[in-house]
Amino acid sequence: MGISSVLIGALSKMSIRSPTEIQAACVPPLLQGEDCIGNAKTGSGKTIAFALPILQKLSLDPYGIFALVLTPTRELAFQIADQFAVLGASLNLRTAVVVGGMDMMAQALELGQRPHVVVATPGRIVDLLRSCSGEWDLSRVKFLVLDEADRLLTESFAPELSYLFEVLPKERQTSLFTATLTPAVERIAEAPPKSGKQKAFIHRMSTTVETVDTLKQHYILVPSHVRESYLYYLLCNPPESILHLRVAPPEPSKPSKHKPSKKSKSRKSSSSSDDAPPQPPPTIVFCTRPRTAAFLTALLQSLRIRTAALHSRLPQRARLASLALFRAGAVPVLVATDVGARGLDVPAVALVVNWDVPAGAEEYTHRVGRTARAGRGGVAVSFVTERDEERVLAVEGRIGTKLEEMTLPESKVLEHLNAVSTAKRLANMELHDSDFGRREEVHRLKNARRAADLGLERGPSTEYASAVL
Question: Would residue 85 count as lying in a domain?
C-alpha cells in the first residue's frame, strides 16, 4: 500500500519533497499494519512518520474515533494536531485536542462528535473517560501512538496508561516514537510478541550521537550568585555565529494627542523602548522550576528584553499565547521549564540557554534539540555553577562529546550589576505580589488529591508495559 496522491499533494504544499530517515524507515511497515518503535533525533520528522499511515488508512475507512495520539505535554499536543489538520485538510479530517487547563465540558462535547484523531495528554483523557457516562468511548480505536514515548513510559504516567490499556481494544496498531531509547522503551522493544501478533518493527538511529552536528554546545562557568548578570550579558551579546539573527527592537510608540496622567507617564517610562538594549536572536532559556521561570521572565522584562514565559503554573491560554508570540517573533526570548523541551518545532530558534543543568542527561538532549533543527545551525549554552560538575559529566557521557567552554568578559558582565540587582528586586516583588508561592501550594495539593484518586498512594506501577504492544 502506498501513500495517496492527495496526501502527497499535502506534503508538497508543506515543502516536503523527500522523506527523512525515520519516515522512510517507518511509514512502509506502518502501512502494512505492523506495530512500530521509531527512534530518531529531535527535528527529524517523527510526527509525519506516524501521521501519514494513519491518514492513508483513514481515507479508506473514515470513522471516529480512529486514532489516539498520546503526548506528555499540552503544547506538543496542539502542535501535533496542527500537523494532522494540515495533512488531512483535503480528507475533511476532524481532530480534537484533549489536554488539561481547558474546559472539560467543551472537550467532552467535542469527543461526542466522534473526531477522527484525538491528540491527548494521558491525565485529561482518563479524567474524561471516567466521567463520560458512556456517551463516547475508545472501543473502535485502530491506531494508538505514544509520542515522546520515553517520557510517557515513566512512573509519572503509569496509572493513566494502565487505565487506558484496559479500555483500548486489544486489536489495534500501536507505535512508539522517541528521540531517546530508555530502558523502558528497550524492554518493550525486546519483549516477545503476544500470541497471534508479529514482533514490532524497530528503527534505531543510525548514529548513537543524540545531538546534531550543526549544534555548537558550550558551557560557561558562572558563580551562582551572579548568574542573572551573565544571562543578561549573553542575551545582549550573543555568539557571533548567530548575531545576524538578532531581533530588531520594537518601533517607538507615537506620542498621544491627549495629555497623559501621571500614572500613564510612569507606566510609559517603565516600558519605553527608547533605552532598550539590543534584542537577542530567538532564544529559549530553560530552567527546572516554574517559580524560576516566572522570576527570570519578570527580571528580563524589567531589563527591557522582550520575554514570554512557558511553565505549568500558567493558564493554558497564557501558555499558548506565549508560544504564539515567540513563534511570530514578537518576543525574542521564551523562558520555559521542561514543558517546552519536548517536540516543539520552532525552526527559528538560534540559541538555547540552560539556566540550570537538568538533573537527567536525556532532558539536556531534548532541550538543546529546540535549536539546530532541519539542518540549520544553532548554539546551546549551559550555565555551570559550583554544584553542577556531576551533571555536566553525565550530559557529556550521554551526547558522546565534550562541551566547549565559553568565556565572557567578567568586567563587562559586572558593568550591569546594579541594573540587574534592581531588576532582581523588582522581579521578586512581582512574584510576592502575585501570590506565586500560594499558587504553588494550591497546585501541590491538587496533584496530591488527584494522585489519591488514581491510587498512587500504593506507589506507581509499571506493569502496564507488557500491554503496550
Answer: yes
